[in-house]
Each structure stands twice: as C-alpha cells, then as structure tokens.
C-alpha cells in the first residue's frame, strides 16, 4: 500500500469531530503514511529491522517533527530517541510515552509507530492550545523492539534500564553475519556508548505506551480503546519425550513406546490447563520435532516447546507446574522418559491499580466505555515496568491481525487513543 493509498484509506471514514483540543487526526494520519514509505514492501507492509538504515531514517523523520513541535531532542548510545518538553516543575522525573519504529519482516504500519506518533500528537495539541504540563514530558522511540535483527528483542529499552545481558548480546550475529558490535558501529554508535544509555533511567518517573491490541477483544466488545491490566511474562519449556523407535509394520500396537502419541496426548492436554489457574493465562505448543521422522518408523523421540504466559507471576508459575506434571504423568503412564528444561522465563508486569484508575478517569472524561484487558505480547513497557510505574492503552485491531501488512486500526480509534493519553497525562 503506497503512502497515498494509506492516507486515503485512513481519511475515508475519519470523523473530523475528533479534531478538538489541539489534536489533529489528519496530521496523525499523514505521519503514519509518511513512515509507511520508509522500508515499504510490495505487499503494503514495512521492513525496518532494528539498527538498520530504514529504522534510522524513520527515527530521523520523527526527530524533525519533534523539533518542529518544540522538543529538545537527543539520541543515546543505544539509538533510543528522546524529545523533551519542560514542565512547570522541571526538576521532578518526567512522564514519558512512546514506542518503537522498527518492524518484523514485512510487518504492519501501526505496531510501534502509532505509540510514538500518539505521544507526539499530545505535544502538538499542547503547542496549539498553549498548555504546559506540570511535569516534564518525553516522547520516546526505543530501538530494536521487535528483535528481527538478532532474534532477541527489546534492545533499546533494556539498554535504558541497564538490564541488557551484554555478554549474551556480544555473541549474536545478524542475518548478514555481522556481530552485534559491528552493527552498532555501522549504525553510528558503539558498545561503550550503549553502556551509558542507562544514565537517563533516573530521569523517568512514569511511562505510558499506546499500542495496537494485536488481538480481538476490543473488536468483539465494539470498543475503540482499552486499558491494559498487565503484561504477560512468557515461560518457555523445552520438553523431550523419549520412547523407542521401531518398524511401523512389525511392531504390535501393544508393544510400542510411541513418543509422538505421548506428545500428541500432551498437546491436547495443555489446551485445558490455563483455565484451571486464571482467566488471563494461556499456553501454546507452537514448535515440535519428530525423530527419526520416517514414514514407516515409530517415532522414538519428540522435542517440543510450550509457551506459557500470564500477567501474574504466581498463576503463570502455577500453570508451568501443571504443564510439567502433565508431561511427567503421560510419560510415566506410557513407560517412557521425559526431560523438561526452562529455556526462557520473563517476569510478568501487572499494571498498578492506581494507574488503571487514572486511565479509567481519562476514559470517562472522553466518554469512552472502559474495558480492562491483558497484554499477551511483550512490549517496551514490560521492560520499564520492572522498576518504573507503567500504563498501557490498547487500540482496536481489525480482525486481531498484527505483524502483517493487513494490520489495521482506524484513524478514529487512533485519534481517540491520543485524546485518552492526553487526558491521562494532564491528570498527573
């Protein structure tokens, strides 16, 4: 989709009555369309890997808009961009808002850029009305949120928080075979400068992120925006069922140790377990390998990965225990071995109740029905939320599609998110 087609589609059903209090939907739409041209793909999506020339060009474009809006702009050693507006009480920690502009390969036009441009539109509205916030406000673009470059995401926000594992990071190579350090140098920074990025952490007192939902809850409820109640932390289990390979024709059915049958029973059972711990828990088996993987061979070994998530650590870990118990039970019943290893475990981030209440007031002020919903995906807010209070506003996603050129949120919904964000920040 070209810039002209995107802006035409965005404006087609736009309700100009949403242009008030300094917020301008046409401006937001044109900026989304302009960013869509940077790294544009033939399918109408974008390809802007972290630390790429395309990601950098998108940042440079937003920097121009930041400066035009009157922000003091700088970029840290991790490539994170900040645009600061002084507050009436400028010595206290800032309220920050933003997201990212990198993408997955052939990704959509809203995941990330909307959060950046929504925060910038709040500043534009204040410039128009002459409003100055009590606390300083910063618009943020985080680097390499998606992780398409190194198969490891949230590089910029982890650098800001000082939680990036540099020893592990230095072992990574990208799709060109370049090391992480080489990529930084080509981008225009260095490992030493990246290490200094965390010096700004103390200057941020709260972070709020606007993001597309990437799911169908809001769409099913008929609501334009929602309040995120928590960000799920994933736990990935690597599970290997070890049975006994044998001839598919000569081994009787009552004398088999079929690892794939055990794995199949496990996969079906996993679907039933999340509801036993909470309404927000989920579990998925998304990757499975069969060995020796022959048409006429009884599978002797099956390795699979279970992705387990919830927004609360205690219920997430309870679900991990149930999944582990089920794997052990199936293996014991079928007389085979099973090994279970935790490959990844990220702490969930529940959103503080006081922040959710303030967001509810912002929804009421804008006459928007309130709905709380969890985020099953990770975001920069998840990284900051380990130490800094965070809030999130979700925007309705058509058909729940994301990481795809068909990703879509109407301009009406996007502009409503700006009004809610603006009200929330002003209430602080």
Automatic annotation (TrEMBL):
Family: Belongs to the peptidase M20 family.
Organism: Neobacillus rhizophilus
Molecular function in Gene Ontology: hydrolase activity, acting on carbon-nitrogen (but not peptide) bonds, in linear amidines; metal ion binding
Taxonomy, superkingdom: Bacteria
TM helices/strands, residue ranges: none
A Pfam family of this chain: Peptidase_M20
Residue numbers binding Zn(2+) 1: 100, 111, 211
Domain Peptidase M20 dimerisation positions: 233-331
Cofactor binding description: Binds 2 Zn(2+) ions per subunit.
Name of the protein in question: Zn-dependent hydrolase
Cofactor: Mn(2+); Zn(2+)
Subunit relationships: Homodimer.
Gene3D superfamilies, per the entry: 3.30.70.360, Zn peptidases
Alphabetical keyword list: Hydrolase, Manganese, Metal-binding, Zinc
Positions that bind Zn(2+) 2: 111, 146, 403
Keyword set includes Transmembrane helix: no
InterPro entries xrefs: Amidase_Cbmase, Bact_exopeptidase_dim_dom, Peptidase_M20, Peptidase_M20_dimer
């Amino acid at each position: 989709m070209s810039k002209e087609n995107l802006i035409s589609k965005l404006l087609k059903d736009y309700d100009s009555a949403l242009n008030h209090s300094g917020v301008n939907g046409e401006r937001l739409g044109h900026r989304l369309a302009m960013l869509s041209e940077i790294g544009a793909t033939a399918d109408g999506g974008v390809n802007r890997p972290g630390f790429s020339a395309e990601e950098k060009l998108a940042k440079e474009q937003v920097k121009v808009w930041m400066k035009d809006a009157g922000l003091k702009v700088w970029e840290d050693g991790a490539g994170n961009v900040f645009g600061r507006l002084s507050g009436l009480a400028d010595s206290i920690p800032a309220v920050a808002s933003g997201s990212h502009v990198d993408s997955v390969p052939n990704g959509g036009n809203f995941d990330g850029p909307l959060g950046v441009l929504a925060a910038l539109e709040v500043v534009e509205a204040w410039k128009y009305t002459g409003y100055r916030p009590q606390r300083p406000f910063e618009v943020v673009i985080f680097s390499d949120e998606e992780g398409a470059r190194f198969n490891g995401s949230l590089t910029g926000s982890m650098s800001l928080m000082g939680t990036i594992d540099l020893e592990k990071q230095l072992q990574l190579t990208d799709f060109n075979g370049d090391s992480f350090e080489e990529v930084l140098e080509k981008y225009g920074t260095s490992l030493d400068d990246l290490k200094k990025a965390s010096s700004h952490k103390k200057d941020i007192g709260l972070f709020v992120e606007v993001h597309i939902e990437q799911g169908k809850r809001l769409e099913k409820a008929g609501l334009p925006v929602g309040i995120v109640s928590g960000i799920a932390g994933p736990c990935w289990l690597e599970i290997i069922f070890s049975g006994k390979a044998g001839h598919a024709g000569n081994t009787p059915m009552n004398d088999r140790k079929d690892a794939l049958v055990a794995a199949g029973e496990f996969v079906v059972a996993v679907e039933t377990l999340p509801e036993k711990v909470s309404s927000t828990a989920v579990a998925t088996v998304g990757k499975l390998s069969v060995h020796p993987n022959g048409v006429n061979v009884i599978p002797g070994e099956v390795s699979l990965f279970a992705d387990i998530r919830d927004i609360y650590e205690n219920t997430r870990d309870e679900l991990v225990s149930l999944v582990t118990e089920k794997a052990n039970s199936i293996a014991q019943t079928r007389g085979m071995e099973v090994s279970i290893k935790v490959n990844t475990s990220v702490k969930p981030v529940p959103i503080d109740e006081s922040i959710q209440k303030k967001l509810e007031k912002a929804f009421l002020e804008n006459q928007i029905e309130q709905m709380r919903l969890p985020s099953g995906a990770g975001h920069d807010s998840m990284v900051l939320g380990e130490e800094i209070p965070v809030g999130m506003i979700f925007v309705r996603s058509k058909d729940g599609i994301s990481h795809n050129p068909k990703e879509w949120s109407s301009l009406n919904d996007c502009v409503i998110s700006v009004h809610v964000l603006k009200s929330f920040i002003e209430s602080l």
